[in-house]
């Protein structure tokens, strides 16, 4: 590999001036800077994008990270992507600011976390101004709304990276525009479960419970809505919107956004980005992780494995985790082998659970490379919270899903996966939970879903099975076609860089006043 960008200096303060220089033979390539939000689910696909830009020779790439996240980021990137660290100022660190969402207790402090992250703004601005060759395009997560203004002040075009999908984005926007909650809630009891049609998409029928709080309220307000307004102001002012999707998965919604909806700039579907996976996440010469060895053993024994991962950014009560454990134990007794990635690492799964399922099930209490797991030949089913990364990775790997949305936009993701694409099944939940209340999904439900999903998965990826297994195999094939040379996502990425990226010639412009 060629080392295209070198970091000549960094310091421990946000005012450091990292200076980057490109190798001579690559000087004419555009320079793309990438700045992810500090959550693994947002960072990982953006590392895939960085690797994709380099491998296709479309750009030199600089990747911004905080020091605490930098080791993980470097493990995901190819060697020819420069990593520039943006430390938090001392006064922010002194308050104990976490460097990633996973370190928080739940998603509820999200607006406060996003606000704290804005302390990186001075460091970003200095780094962009000092970059050589000058940055021709900044790809920044939509949550980093302030980064778009910083780049624009330097004359650098920006693209917002959308962590979710086009379907959920449009549906949420329609809800805010049409406010069906006002009419439904005026009718009295049962409004949360009442269905309503989406005018532009008559095949889509939603309930208020499908829409995340507070977007499903008649007069939504509070920190989440204030943050949402900032995000969409930044997106509307950016030059484009990257969506980790592809035509066969969401083509009608991308087309609708670009042709009719236009609540923001043009959307560029360039996924699935996981198919451009960079590093293994283990580092050079690192020992193979225990979960990979376990999967290899099951494959050698001819066993099919259910992968279970219910997200990293939202806390699940211990009582619910113990029900999941009980369900998986019962499923294992019926012949289902499983690998369960658990968060948090100290989650209480019940006394003796891991010992009782040893050999049939494995619990991993550390971060795992989910894409590697889903690609493994013995993994035939995926019990998922249906976060968008998980959904698109499951589809790209050809693994049918059991969708168990936990919150945020996940019910909308599940609707797309189960009702429209028909590549998965739903985990039945109590009525109270389905309408936004509290409750617990019992172990017997988990056991039944696990057994049914693995039976439906058939003998192998693309090797028969139920309708959902056949559908996901076909969609996985279309995903590979999309990112292959000449495919829809291949062409979209090339066109986006050519259209939006500023050429490298000339000096970096001074900040505007």
Automatic annotation (TrEMBL):
Keywords of this entry: Glycosyltransferase, Transferase
GO MF entry, a single one: UDP-glycosyltransferase activity
EC category name: transferase
Domain of life: Eukaryota
EC number(s) on file: 2.4.1.-
UniProt cross-references to InterPro entries, sorted A to Z: UDP_glucos_trans (IPR002213), UDP_glycos_trans_CS (IPR035595)
Entry similarity comment: Belongs to the UDP-glycosyltransferase family.
Protein name in the entry: Glycosyltransferase
Species, as recorded: Oryza sativa subsp. japonica
The organism's taxonomic lineage, starting at the top: Eukaryota, Viridiplantae, Streptophyta, Embryophyta, Tracheophyta
């Amino acid at each position: 590999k060629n080392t295209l960008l070198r970091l000549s200096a960094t310091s421990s303060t946000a005012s450091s001036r990292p200076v980057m220089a490109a190798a001579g033979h690559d000087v004419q390539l555009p320079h793309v800077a990438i700045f992810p939000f500090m959550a693994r689910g947002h960072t990982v696909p953006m590392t895939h994008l960085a690797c994709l830009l380099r491998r296709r020779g479309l750009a030199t790439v600089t990747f911004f990270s905080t020091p605490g996240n930098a080791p993980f980021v470097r493990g995901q990137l190819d060697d020819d992507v420069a990593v520039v660290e943006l430390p938090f100022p001392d006064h922010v660190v002194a308050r104990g600011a976490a460097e990633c969402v996973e370190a928080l207790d739940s998603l509820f402090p999200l607006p406060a976390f996003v606000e704290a992250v804005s302390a990186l703004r001075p460091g970003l601005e200095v780094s962009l101004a000092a970059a050589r060759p000058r940055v021709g395009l900044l790809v920044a997560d939509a949550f980093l709304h302030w980064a778009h203004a910083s780049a624009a002040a330097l004359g650098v075009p920006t693209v917002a990276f959308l962590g979710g999908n086009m379907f959920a984005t449009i549906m949420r926007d329609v809800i805010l525009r049409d406010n069906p909650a006002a009419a439904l809630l005026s009718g009295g009891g049962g409004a949360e479960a009442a269905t309503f049609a989406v005018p532009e998409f008559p095949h889509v029928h939603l309930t208020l419970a499908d829409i995340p709080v507070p977007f499903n309220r008649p007069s939504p307000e509070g920190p989440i809505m204030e943050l949402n307004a900032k995000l969409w102001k930044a997106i509307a002012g950016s030059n484009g919107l990257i969506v980790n999707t592809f035509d066969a998965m969401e083509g009608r919604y991308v087309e609708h956004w670009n042709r009719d909806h236009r609540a923001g700039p043009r959307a560029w579907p360039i996924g699935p980005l996981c198919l451009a996976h960079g590093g293994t996440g283990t580092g050079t010469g690192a020992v193979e992780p225990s979960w990979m060895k376990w999967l290899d053993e099951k494959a050698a024994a001819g066993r099919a494995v259910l992968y279970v991962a219910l997200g990293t950014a939202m806390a699940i009560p211990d009582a619910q985790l113990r029900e999941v454990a009980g369900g998986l134990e019962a499923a294992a007794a019926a012949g289902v082998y499983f690998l369960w990635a658990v968060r948090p690492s100290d989650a209480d799964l019940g006394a003796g659970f891991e010992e009782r399922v040893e050999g049939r099930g494995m619990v991993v209490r550390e971060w795992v490379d989910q894409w590697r797991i889903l690609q493994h030949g013995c993994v035939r089913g995926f019990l998922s919270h249906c976060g968008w990364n998980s959904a698109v990775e499951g589809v790209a790997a050809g693994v049918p899903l059991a969708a168990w949305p936990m919150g945020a936009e996940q019910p909308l993701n599940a609707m797309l996966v189960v009702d429209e694409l028909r590549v998965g099944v739903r985990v039945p939940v109590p009525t109270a939970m389905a309408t936004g209340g509290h409750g617990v999904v019992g172990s017997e439900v988990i056991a039944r879903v696990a057994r049914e999903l693995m039976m439906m998965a058939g003998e192998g990826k693309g090797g028969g099975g139920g309708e959902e297994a056949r559908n996901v195999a076909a969609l996985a094939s279309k995903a590979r076609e999309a990112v292959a040379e000449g495919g829809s996502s291949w062409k979209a990425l090339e066109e986006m860089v050519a259209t939006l990226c500023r050429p490298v010639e000339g000096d970096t412009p001074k900040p505007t006043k």
